[in-house]
Each structure stands twice: as C-alpha cells, then as structure tokens.
Write a structure and sequence with these properties.
The protein is an alpha+beta fold. The protein is about 20% helix and about 40% strand.
Length: about 350
C-alpha cells in the first residue's frame, strides 16, 4: 500500500475548474496547508520540500492527468497585491503563468475577492516572478476578457548554438517573460506547428529543453530561484510584424504541451521580436496556440531588468469556467500518491 501523509477521512480539497484557450486551471479554494516563509518564493520552496504530495495528488492521475495545471492561493507579501498564487503542474512549480493569470483575474472578480468596478476591474496578483497587474472587463456584472502586464521581459541570449543528440548543433534564442524559454522555429528540426502531431513536438521540446539547460547557465537579476529553463517554444518562424496570427507551441515541465498560446511565452516572444526590431512599441501581435485559441500581445513600455534591455508586455485572453470539484482520499487507496504514465 502506498504511504500517505493524510489522516484517514481528514483530507478534502475543493477547487474551481477553468480553462484559458483550452489550457486547464484547477484553482484550489480550500484544503491546502498553510505554507511557511515570508516571501512567496520562500513559500514555493516550502511547498516543494514539505507539501509536494498535494501537488502530485491534484495534478497527477487519477484526479489529474499528464498535462494538468493548477493554482494555489497563498498570503501575499507584496503590499500592492490583492492575492498571491503558486502555480502547480505535473513536474513542479512554475514562476509565471499567463493563462492562469487570465483565469484568476475573472475568478477574483466573480468570487468577490476584489471590489468590482465597471467597465473594468483591476486585480493585482503576486506571482513568484513578481507583481502582475490584471484588468478584467465587466459589463452588467458579468466578467469577461482579461488583459495583464507582467514583469519586465527580456532576451537572455540570441543565436545560441546548443548540441543535441537528435539534431546535432541547433541555433536558438533564450528569452524571459516571467519564465525562461528556448525559442526556435519548428521547421529548423523538420517539424511543423500546424501539422506535426503533439507527441512529436512534446518529445522534441523536452529534448531541446534538457540539452539547453545542461549547456547554458542562466541568471536572473533579481533572484536565483528564477534562473531555470522552463521549456521550449516552437514557432512558425513568422516573427516580423504581420496582422495575421503567428503560432506558438510551448512544451514545458518535461513533455507538457500548452493548449493556450502561453502568456509568459507570448511575453518572451514579444521581447525577442522587439529586441530584433521586428515589432515596435504599441503594436499588437496576435498569437495562436496548437488548438487555435488566441492571445494578443503588445510591448507597451521599454524598461530594464538588471543589465538587460527589457519591455513590459501586455497580454490579453479569455478564460471560461467548466466546473467545481471536491477531492477526497481514502486511507486504503493503493494509488494515494498519484501516478503518471510515460
């Protein structure tokens, strides 16, 4: 029988179930333990070190699946934050998640967590990467589309050569939009973001992330906890400004494939396009996901992130509700710790 830290009959977690552009978000509303630490990044460490069973139980099968995503509300330490959040996925804890911010913005308005104002309500959300300011459209009391401005986005390195076992030397860029991503055109390795099966993109993304993480030492000007390669973004190569949408396929946390266009990934791609001179401040670009859902991204302000030229990016999208849940656990359950199939 699998061991579990939960007392028989004492475990109960309630959630709100949402999706943004097809990417799930399981918002934990009760039942998660209080986390230790003054800063949000300290709480993230405590969750990993002492409460990771909750993540596995809620993200992994049989209650979740290999591409599940979640959010846990915690006490903010930023004086301007309305709420703070830890992001959960199948492999661990991310530092920023745009699709989750879009969903949390709606939920904060609808749950009465913030004072509602029409036609727009502001929600300040503290993520592990920093403060994210969301604006929720509200009409006749109903919440709608959300836009947000995250932390400064910047390019860490351009035209890096990374050795891979599968494709030999590959050229890629690394950019930050609240998390670090390797970015390259899918056709550079013979794939197509419109036609290639998701499992091939997932395999390739995991391999490239692993190779780049092993060969490139990342740093972040604010905190070493932010300095890790979260995933790989495959693009259609259409980086120069165009009114037609450009497609992202983001593979993160191992082989997870984002169904949305990836909010932090859109921020990273906008930073890369802006750095290359391919998009100007104030010009909006539309980004499409593997399932055809769309986010808009705009570089709204030039700034700095330590030694890096950076931009503040505004991303907008739409989230939807699709349920509520109450999760329990029987003490004699042999699969109490959850599982994932390769």
């Amino acid at each position: 029988m699998a061991s579990t830290p939960f007392l028989a009959g004492a475990f109960e977690v309630t959630t709100i179930e949402m999706h943004t552009g097809g990417e799930p978000l399981r918002i934990v509303t009760s039942g998660y333990p209080k986390l230790a630490g003054r800063r949000l990044l300290d709480k993230r460490r405590d969750a990993l070190a002492n409460h990771d069973t909750f993540r596995r139980l809620l993200m992994h099968e049989p209650r979740g699946h290999s591409d599940m995503y979640g959010a846990v509300l915690v006490e903010p330490d930023h004086p301007e934050a309305d709420l703070a959040v830890l992001f959960l996925h199948g492999e661990g804890y991310s530092t920023m998640c745009g699709h989750a911010i879009v969903a949390l913005g709606r939920w904060a308005v609808d749950s009465g967590l913030v004072t509602v104002r029409e036609p727009e309500t502001e929600v300040a959300i503290q993520a592990p990467c920093g403060l994210v300011r969301a604006v929720v459209s509200v009409q006749n009391g109903k919440s709608g589309r959300v836009r947000f401005r995250s932390v400064p986005s910047f390019v860490f390195a351009r035209e890096l050569m990374v050795d891979t076992a599968e494709w030999g030397p590959l050229q890629l860029d690394i950019a930050y939009g609240g998390a670090f991503y390797a970015i390259l055109a899918a056709d550079s390795i013979g794939l197509d973001v419109h036609k290639s099966p998701a499992h091939l993109l997932a395999d390739a993304g995991a391999a490239i992330t692993g190779a780049a993480a092993a060969q490139v030492r990342l740093s972040h000007p604010e905190d070493d906890d932010l300095a890790f390669l979260y995933g790989t973004i495959f693009t259609d190569g259409r980086d120069a400004y165009d009114e037609a949408p450009t497609r992202n396929v983001c593979v993160f946390a191992g082989r997870q494939v984002d169904r949305s266009p990836t909010g932090s990934g859109v921020s990273a791609r906008i930073a890369l396009q802006w750095t290359r001179g391919e998009i100007a401040l104030g010009r909006t670009r539309r980004f499409e996901s593997i399932v055809g859902s769309r986010f808009d991204g705009t570089a709204v302000e030039e700034t700095r992130a330590g030694p890096y030229r950076a931009v503040v990016v505004e991303v907008s999208g739409q989230a939807h509700y699709h349920g509520e849940a109450r999760f329990t656990l029987e003490a004699e359950d042999p699969l109490a710790n959850g599982f994932l199939l390769d």
